[in-house]
């Protein structure tokens, strides 16, 4: 069997060398099909990785009690008319909520101007929160630490800065611990730096934030801002129970009658999953449709070429049969030749996809994508190309194996 495969490959390579242009054009459909298979799988894998990174930055078992819906299902006017979540309501919810592992108040001031030395940057988000927020959805602290409960209690002027803030003020790899920044004339000492978190699904502002104790924030910006509450359930298994308790307590705090709709939102990472599912289905539908079309074209092209090959080598087949070659041997030879043509197309597709991936991953927006072809996609593409070769070469190979040796020898 092994010797037959080697012989078939040698004959196929010889035929391809003799008809380079024809072989290349024949393999084009397979090249396009395999390219779609690889690029589609590569993009979807990167999409899943980016999604998991975004979920991790928000917390997969974290609920956010807020005025606004992340899902966008409610109209802008309706959510704007909702009452703000006040500091008193946040504190009452945190005190009464029993099923949650930990809770933290979050206050934000957007488009803030921050200074350090002679430098000044606008558009930075300042976040005031509690010391426990580091265990909810902060991300990884690359340098230093988060502020302590004591610093939280006594309104210490300390800050943890995001990746973009550190990069703009001090450079990408420069140490920043112990340095100071000024916000509204108040000096804050930097005690921590958060690792880069932004990705395709994590918003860019997430790296352009400064975190400080909640009381320090309220002292700078006042308590009249709309607040939100991060509620960590302590595991996805406890998420439903925590959600139900949170909704019930918030309805009581806001004195909502049983028939009234909630005038607040419970946000979680599931709001993004539905959107991503739609995107995944769209990519799959487009990719599978174009892949199928390309393979159909490839199968037809290879089948036609194999018929031509059978016709050109009719006398050779007659001689082989006259010398005792079996039908299975002739059949196998042409199947190997058709599969070799498809493997040639797969190899061309591998090289092309590698060049595309290398070029795309050099772009800033594509950091979630892998710079190389995942091994499982290489295996899938190879198996698919061989299967296409067998399918397209089956009918011509059967025709060749059934030729009458006498008639074949007389063929000119």
List keywords for this structure.
412 residues, alpha+beta, six-stranded mixed β-barrel, 13 helices, 10 strands, 55% helix
Description:
This protein has 412 residues and is of the alpha+beta class. The protein contains 13 helices and 10 strands. The mean pLDDT is 83.
SSE inventory with pairings:
Layout: H1 2-18, H2 20-58, E1 62-66, H3 76-80, H4 87-96, E2 102-116, E3 119-129, E4 141-144, H5 149-153, E5 158-161, H6 163-170, E6 180-183, E7 186-194, E8 209-213, H7 214-221, E9 228-232, H8 239-253, E10 265-267, H9 270-312, H10 314-322, H11 327-360, H12 375-401, H13 405-410
Parallel strand pairs: 3-8, 5-7
Antiparallel strand pairs: 1-9, 1-10, 2-3, 2-6, 2-9, 4-7, 5-8, 6-7
- Quote the average pLDDT: 83
- N- to C-terminal distance: 31 Å
Radius of gyration: 32 Å
Helical segment count? 13
Kindly give the count of domains: 2
Structure classification:
alpha+beta
Spans of at least 5 consecutive residues with low confidence: none
Topology pattern, helix = H, strand = E: HHEHHEEEHEHEEEHEHEHHHHH
The protein's oligomeric status is single chain
Count of individual beta strands: 10
Q: Describe the sheet with the most strands.
A: 6 strands, mixed, barrel
Identify the overall geometry: elongated
β content, as a range?
15-25%
Strand order of the largest sheet: 2-3-8-5-7-6
| Helical content (DSSP H or I, runs of 4+) | 40-55%
């Amino acid at each position: 069997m092994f010797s037959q495969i080697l012989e078939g490959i040698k004959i196929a390579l010889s035929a391809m060398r003799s008809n380079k242009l024809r072989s290349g054009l024949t393999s084009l459909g397979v090249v396009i099909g395999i390219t779609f298979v690889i690029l589609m799988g590569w993009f979807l894998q990167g999409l899943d990785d980016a999604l998991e990174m975004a979920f991790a930055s928000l917390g997969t078992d974290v609920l956010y009690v807020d005025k606004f819906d992340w899902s966008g299902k409610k109209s802008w006017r309706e959510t704007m008319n909702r009452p703000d979540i006040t500091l008193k309501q946040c504190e009452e919810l945190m005190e009464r909520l029993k099923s949650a592992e930990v809770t933290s108040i979050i206050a934000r001031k957007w488009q803030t101007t921050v200074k350090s030395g002679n430098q000044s940057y606008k558009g930075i988000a300042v976040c005031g929160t509690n010391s426990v927020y580091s265990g909810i959805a902060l991300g990884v602290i690359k340098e230093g630490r988060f502020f302590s409960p004591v610093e939280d209690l006594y309104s210490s002027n300390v800050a943890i800065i995001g990746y973009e803030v550190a990069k703009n003020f001090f450079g990408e790899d420069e140490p920043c611990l112990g340095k100071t920044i000024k916000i509204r004339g108040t000096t804050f000492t930097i005690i921590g730096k958060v690792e880069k978190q932004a990705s395709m699904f994590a918003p860019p502002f997430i790296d352009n934030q400064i975190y400080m104790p909640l009381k320090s924030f309220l002292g700078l910006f006042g308590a009249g801002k709309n607040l939100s509450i991060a509620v960590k359930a302590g595991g996805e298994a406890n998420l439903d129970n925590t959600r139900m308790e949170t909704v019930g307590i918030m309805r009581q705090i806001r004195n909502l009658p049983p028939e009234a709709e909630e005038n607040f939102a419970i946000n979680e990472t599931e709001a993004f999953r539905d959107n991503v599912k739609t995107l995944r289905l769209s990519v799959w539908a487009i990719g599978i449709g174009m892949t199928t079309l390309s393979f159909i074209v490839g199968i037809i092209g290879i089948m036609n070429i194999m018929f031509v090959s059978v016709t050109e080598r009719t006398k050779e087949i007659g001689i082989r049969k006259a010398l005792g070659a079996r039908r299975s041997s002739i059949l196998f030879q042409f199947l190997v030749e058709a599969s070799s043509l498809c493997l040639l197309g797969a190899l061309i597709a591998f090289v092309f996809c590698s060049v595309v991936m290398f070029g795309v991953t050099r772009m800033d927006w594509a950091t979630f994508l892998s710079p190389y072809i995942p091994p499982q996609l290489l295996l899938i593409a190879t198996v698919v190309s061989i299967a296409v070769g067998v399918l397209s070469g089956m009918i011509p190979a059967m025709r060749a194996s059934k030729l009458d040796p006498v008639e074949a020898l007389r063929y000119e």
